[in-house]
Specification:
Distance between the termini: 16 Å
Number of domains: 3
CATH superfamily of the largest domain: Copper amine oxidase-like, N-terminal domain
CATH architecture of the largest domain: 2-Layer Sandwich
Radius of gyration: 27 Å
Number of helices: 3
Shape: flat
CATH class of the largest domain: Alpha Beta
């Protein structure tokens, strides 16, 4: 028996500089874009540097400002200026750079170490405001937290658990732990098992699987040396577990490099009854959507990527992409029909019931009944969105099956589904 799960971690990332220039008064570059973690301080010899090269034959006194996004200046920055240049902190994120006539800008670059603390997931950037100078304006990335595109696949078979990481991220990764693997209470990693860890591309020859010790429920996927740039894959196979508990073992995979989302997989017990004996007549199903998230979570066990993200409309209603919602609750694509002439979508639930929703109308047609809504279906960015609660109610879901979490801006849908014996 094999089971297969896929997860896609995504985050919007704009790579490199985003210059806003009126004319080529100066050439501005950042020495490197560091892979960081939240709260990491960038100091020492490897700190990124903003380098400004004169293109205008500039002389005399002038000043300009630097503003950080997703980072704050360290107090030590004020003592790191070149002779003839003064750094003055205006706030945690704003730095004034004053250049005197004593600094030969025509023959020397202005070099500003980006001694900062990175705050949250995403990019850290520095923006130049020229003020009264001939320095060119621009915004430049110098650090980032999290991968913008990392897929994780898990396959379980008689040979053990296999984890596969596909990394389209162009940056080099520093030496150390990439992912933390954690087993639920009552289970530990079997350190007597032969686990193979292999890498391709930038991870070639660098991958390790390292349990925390004997009888440990924690292990790490890590690299033994800093990687090159470009793409790469990591495959860890032959992972085995031991132990027993009332509940089936759960393996959680969490990125160590930042605040990336963790994913959990429910595994087969090391020694238990057959799947047929364990299968209940009815099982509870669950899916969870998060406003703004481009994925949904199935049974707290796997994440499914979506091309369009849920959102809250002006009436305070959660709007879900049509096909993602339908597929998540078990409605196949061939049960969904779109009439482009009338802008109407028809959903067949498999029991003979038919639900029709027309874009821009505040009604749902359930067979021959008309149900009023306090909002309407819309097309947004080329995708059809339906009012989640109204459509689920029409499909037979009670409000008790639909739970809204205000803090997470998430909605969890639960229902019972007969199992096949």
């Amino acid at each position: 028996m094999k089971r297969f799960f896929v997860m896609l971690l995504t985050a919007t990332l704009t790579v490199g500089a985003l210059p806003v220039m009126g004319f080529a008064a100066s050439t501005n570059t950042v020495s490197r874009d560091i892979s960081a973690s939240e709260g990491m301080e960038l100091t020492g010899a490897n700190v990124p540097e903003l380098r400004i090269t004169d293109e205008e034959g500039t002389t005399g006194d002038f000043y300009f400002e630097l503003t950080l996004n997703n980072a704050t200046w360290l107090d030590s920055i004020t003592s790191q200026a070149q002779s003839g240049i003064t750094f003055t902190l205006l706030s945690d994120t704003r730095l004034m750079v004053q250049v005197t006539d004593g600094f030969d800008f025509q023959n020397n670059d202005i070099v500003i170490p980006l001694a900062t603390e990175v705050e949250d997931a995403g990019q850290a950037t520095v923006t130049i405001d020229p003020k009264d100078s001939t320095i060119s304006a621009g915004t430049y990335a110098f650090a980032h937290v999290n991968y913008p595109g990392m897929s994780i696949q898990m396959e379980e078979s008689e040979d053990g658990v296999q984890l596969m990481f596909e990394d389209d991220y162009p940056y080099a990764m520093r030496q150390g732990r990439l992912f933390q693997l954690t087993l639920s209470r009552g289970y530990t990693f079997d350190t007597s098992a032969t686990v193979e860890a292999e890498g391709t591309g930038k991870y070639n020859g660098r991958v390790e699987f390292r349990p925390m010790g004997e009888n440990s429920s924690t292990a790490y996927v890590q690299i033994s040396s800093a990687s090159a740039t470009g793409e790469g894959t990591i495959t860890v196979s032959g992972i085995r577990i031991k132990g027993s508990a009332e509940n089936a073992p759960v393996l959680s995979v969490k990125p160590v490099y930042g605040s990336g989302s963790s994913i959990s997989y429910t595994l087969m017990a090391p020694e238990g009854d057959s799947e047929e004996d364990q299968a209940p007549a009815v099982q509870q199903k669950q899916v969870k959507f998060v406003a703004g998230g481009n994925y949904y979570v199935v049974d707290n066990d796997s994440m499914v990527a979506m091309e369009a993200a849920p959102f809250i409309d002006e009436n305070g209603r959660t709007m879900l992409p049509l096909r993602a919602l339908s597929n998540a609750i078990g409605i196949d694509a061939n049960q969904i029909h779109w009439d482009d002439a009338t802008k109407t979508v028809t959903i067949e639930d498999g029991s003979g019931k038919e639900i029709r929703v027309t874009i821009g109308q505040q009604q749902i047609y359930v067979d021959n009944r008309v149900i009023s809504m306090d909002t309407q279906a819309v097309i947004r960015d080329g995708y059809t969105y339906l009012p989640m609660r109204a459509v689920l109610n029409a499909l037979g879901f009670d409000d008790s099956n639909i739970v809204w979490n205000e803090r997470e801006k998430s909605v969890t849908i639960t229902w019972e589904e007969a199992t096949q014996v």
